C-alpha cells in the first residue's frame, strides 16, 4: 500500500531563517505531488505541484519554492521566512497515468505545522 | 474559475443521529469530480467520499453518503449514526477533469464545516 511521509511534524523558526520541508511517498511510482498551505481557520491553498522529477509548477507567487530531486521526494523551501509563512503545510500525491493524464483522488500526508516568530 | 462554498461554518449533531453538511459549487464544466475530506484534530486530511459528475448514482461509503444534484450544483454529505470520532472539519473539494493551463488536477477547496458530536 502507498504511504506518504512528511517531516518535521512541527517547526518553529525565526523570521529570516531558511526553511526545508520534506515529503516522500512510498509504494507508488511516478506520482503527481502537491504542496498545500492551510492558514489558521481557512481552507487549503495549493502552492506547488509536480508531474515529474524537476518539473515544478507554482500556483501562487510567494516567498517559497519547491523542488523534486527524486521521483518520490518533494521539498518545500524558503531562503528567508516571513511571518506570513506560518501555517500548516500539507503534501499530497495522486496517481499519474500515461501521457500526463491525471487521475482524480489526492491523498494527503500528516502535515507540518510551521510557526514563524 | 470554479468556486466551492460551504455555507455552514459549524454544525453539531447528537451521537447516533444523522447530520447533513452542505456544499455548493460553481463551474461551467460538465465533467468533474467532487470530494469530501475530513480533517480531525490531528489535521491530516482524510478522504471520506468522492463522486464523479458523470455518474447519476450518489456515492456511498458505509455511514457516509452524498446527495449530488448536478443541475443545482449541490453536493451535500450525510453522516448517519454519528460517532464521536466523526468530530472534525469537513472540506468539500472540486476537481476538474480538464488539463488546461497549469492547473492539472488541482483541488479547489471550500472553507470547511466544523462538526461537533455530542455524547
Please name the defining characteristics of this protein.
heterodimer, A: 117 residues, mainly beta, Immunoglobulin-like, 7-stranded mixed β-sheet, 4-stranded antiparallel β-sheet, 11 strands, 0% helix, globular, B: 119 residues, 6-stranded mixed β-sheet
Structural account:
The complex is a heterodimer of chains A (117) and B (119). Chain A has 117 residues and is mainly beta. Chain A has a single domain, classed as Immunoglobulin-like, CATH 2.60.40. Helix content of chain A is 0%, strand content 55%. Chain A contains no helices and 11 strands. Chain A has strands at residues 3-7, 10-13, 19-26, 32-38, 44-52, 55-58, 65-70, 73-78, 87-94, 107-108, 112-116. In chain A, strands 2, 4, 5, 6, 9, 10 and 11 form a 7-stranded mixed sheet that branches. Chain A has a 4-stranded antiparallel sheet with strand order 1-3-8-7, with no helix packed on it. In chain A, strand 5 (44-52) and strand 6 form a beta hairpin. The relative contact order of chain A is 0.32. Chain B has a single domain (3-118), classed as Immunoglobulins (Immunoglobulin-like), CATH 2.60.40. Chain B is built from no helices and 12 strands. The mean pLDDT of chain B is 91.
Percent of residues of chain A in beta strands? over 45%
Q: What structural class do the secondary elements of chain B suggest? A: mainly beta
Radius of gyration of chain B: 14 Å
- What's the number of structural domains of chain B? 1
**What about the largest sheet of chain A?**
7 strands, mixed
CATH evolutionary superfamily of chain B: Immunoglobulins
CATH superfamily heading of chain A: Immunoglobulins
How many domains of chain A, as an integer? 1
The CATH architecture of chain B: Sandwich
Helix content of chain A: under 10%
Proportion of residues in β-strands of chain B: over 45%
Amino acid at each position: 500500500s502507498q504511504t506518504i511521509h512528511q517531516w518535521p511534524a512541527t517547526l518553529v523558526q525565526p523570521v529570516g531563517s531558511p526553511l526545508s520541508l520534506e515529503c516522500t511517498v512510498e509504494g507508488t511510482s511516478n506520482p503527481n505531488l502537491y504542496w498545500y498551505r492551510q492558514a489558521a481557520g481557512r481552507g487549503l491553498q495549493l502552492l506547488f505541484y509536480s508531474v515529474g522529477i524537476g518539473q515544478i509548477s507554482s500556483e501562487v507567487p510567494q516567498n517559497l519554492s519547491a523542488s523534486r530531486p527524486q521521483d518520490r521526494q518533494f521539498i518545500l523551501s524558503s531562503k528567508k521566512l516571513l511571518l506570513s509563512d506560518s501555517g500548516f503545510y500539507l503534501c499530497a500525491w495522486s496517481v499519474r497515468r500515461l501521457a500526463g493524464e491525471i487521475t482524480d483522488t489526492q491523498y494527503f500526508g500528516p502535515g507540518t505545522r510551521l510557526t514563524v516568530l | 474559475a470554479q468556486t466551492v462554498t460551504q455555507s455552514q461554518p459549524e454544525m453539531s449533531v447528537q451521537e447516533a443521529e444523522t447530520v447533513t453538511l452542505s456544499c455548493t459549487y460553481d463551474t461551467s464544466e460538465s465533467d468533474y469530480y467532487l470530494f469530501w475530506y475530513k480533517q480531525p484534530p490531528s489535521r491530516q486530511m482524510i478522504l471520506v467520499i468522492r463522486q464523479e459528475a458523470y455518474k447519476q448514482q450518489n456515492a456511498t461509503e458505509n455511514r457516509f453518503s452524498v446527495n449530488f444534484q448536478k443541475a443545482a450544483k449541490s453536493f451535500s454529505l450525510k453522516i448517519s449514526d454519528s460517532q464521536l470520532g466523526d468530530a472534525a472539519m469537513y472540506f468539500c473539494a472540486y476537481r476538474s477533469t480538464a488539463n488546461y493551463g497549469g492547473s492539472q488536477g488541482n483541488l479547489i477547496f471550500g472553507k470547511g464545516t466544523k462538526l461537533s458530536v455530542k455524547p
